[in-house]
Design a protein that fits this description.
Chain B: This is Rod shape-determining protein MreD. The complex is a heterodimer of chains A (246) and B (168). Chain A has 246 residues and is of the alpha+beta class. Chain A has helices spanning 2-23, 27-51, 54-73, and strands at 88-98, 103-106, 119-121, 126-133, 138-142, 149-154, 160-165, 172-176, 188-191, 205-213, 221-227, 236-242. Chain A is globular. Chain B has six helices and no strands. The longest helix of chain B is centred in the last third of the chain and has 35 residues, at 125-159. Mean pLDDT of chain B is 82; it is low at 161-168. Classes of the chains: A alpha+beta (246), B mainly alpha (168).
Chain lengths: 246, 168
């Protein structure tokens, strides 16, 4: 009896992994987790914020409004050559849960219009992209995730490159496609932007060059970039979602 | 008490522990190891599946569903088994030191989780390796300490008459 139970438990664990990996992603289970644990996370986030007091709430609301305006006016305009601005809508959200340094939960989900693979930013710069949207919460994959890569453009020289996460350090690694491109500590890095603004819209600050790596004979120019947004102390963020009604 | 802790552990993990800049313990793994130590391998195995599944679907987790569940079910089973020990010829079972089993169970859970994450392609191995030492240290330290306290409490309760033996 006991042996059967143990075998059953182990077997169901294996079945879960196999089904999720090969047959179909177990979306209903994830949605249930988002509904139960995500809702509690949002509720606790709301309570801790309201304890913070009225003044903090007002400051956040102002920041929120500014963000929205900034975003709708479009950071895209600073670069006329960028893609045609698609109709976007800003959804403001709070970060309520933290994963193991690579991803966070926000308290807005598909009910608020959040979908997969759209840009998340805050007042300082790029935060990441939505990796999964549940009913009431969504998961954000941060730009420091070693699996993330963002198309980048130097703000001054216009050189193109890719920014990827570096494991464990909270920094990013920039690779410029032109090995002879001018690069200095303190240079600003912006997002290049993708077609339709997914996953990343153009013209959002990613960070500043902190240290240039000199690898003799390398095919690309690499440097370490400090993110503009403080990714270890995130609170208010905005999600740029496509708005078909506009 | 421990079952309740198992259910809220995924929440505490994402709300408090992961916020800390110095790393933190894996609370779900700890809950499973403690349950296995105080209630035996079958409890440990079932608790591992339930707690691991909860951890797998608690946002912002985005790995394979069932990965943590499977790993913790195995850990719970092994930790419980080892704790009980083999029955000696005289008919008495010799229990292992809870401090040691708690530490080993916690280490096993952490290492297996990192290994499974890499094997299933949820994390690049360098990222898993970078986070491992902190989590391992915290989890093993807490696992050893609290296991010893739990077992001592259970023993003192068993010494008293008319107290349910299996409740820890």
């Amino acid at each position: 009896m006991k042996r059967a139970l143990v075998l059953l438990v182990l077997l169901s664990g294996i079945v879960l992994v196999v089904v999720d990996r090969t047959l179909m992603p177990l979306e209903p289970l994830r949605a249930a987790g988002s509904t139960v644990y995500g809702t509690v996370q949002s509720a606790i986030g709301t309570v801790t914020r309201s304890v913070g007091g009225e003044g903090r709430l007002r400051a956040l609301e102002q920041e929120n409004a500014r963000l929205r305006a900034e975003m709708l006016a479009g950071g895209v305009k600073s670069r006329p050559a960028a893609t045609v601005p698609a109709p976007y809508r800003g959804v403001s959200a709070h970060v309520v849960g933290f994963g193991q340094g690579r991803n966070v939960t926000i308290d807005a989900g598909s009910a608020a219009g959040v979908v997969r693979d759209v840009t998340v930013l805050n007042a300082d710069g790029l935060v990441g992209k939505i990796s999964w949207a549940g009913p009431a919460t969504a998961s954000v994959s941060l730009i420091t995730d070693p699996g993330s890569s963002v198309g980048a453009r130097m703000a001054d020289s216009g050189e193109l490159g890719v920014v990827a996460g570096v494991p464990g350090e909270g920094l990013l690694r920039l690779s410029l496609f032109d090995p002879n491109a001018p690069l200095e500590v303190g240079d600003q890095v912006m997002t290049l932007g993708s077609a339709g603004g997914r996953p990343y819209v153009a013209g959002v600050p990613i960070g500043t060059v902190a240290q240039i790596e000199r690898v003799p004979g390398a095919a690309t120019r690499t440097a370490l970039v400090r993110p503009a947004a403080r990714l270890s102390a995130l609170d208010l963020v905005a999600v740029v979602v496509p708005d078909p009604g506009r | 008490m421990l079952v309740l802790f198992l259910l809220v552990a995924p929440l505490l993990q994402v709300l408090l522990v992961n916020r800390s800049p110095w790393g933190g313990p894996d609370l779900v793994a700890l809950a499973v190891v403690w349950l296995a130590l105080s209630r035996g391998p079958v409890w440990g195995c079932v608790a591992g599946l339930a707690g691991g599944l909860a951890a797998d679907v608690t946002p912002p987790a985005d790995g394979t569903v069932g990965r943590t569940a499977l790993v913790l079910a195995v850990t719970g089973l092994l930790a419980g088994r080892w704790r009980e020990g083999k029955p000696s010829p005289e008919g008495r079972t010799r229990e292992h030191n809870p401090l040691l089993v708690g530490a080993a169970g916690a280490a096993l859970a952490t290492l297996l989780q990192a290994g499974a994450a890499v094997a299933l392609g949820d994390e690049p191995w360098r990222a898993a390796l970078a986070a491992l030492p902190w989590t391992l240290g915290w989890t093993v330290a807490l696992g050893a300490l609290v296991s010893a306290v739990l077992l001592r409490r259970r023993r003192s309760r068993e010494g008293e008459p008319r107290v349910a033996m299996r409740r820890a």
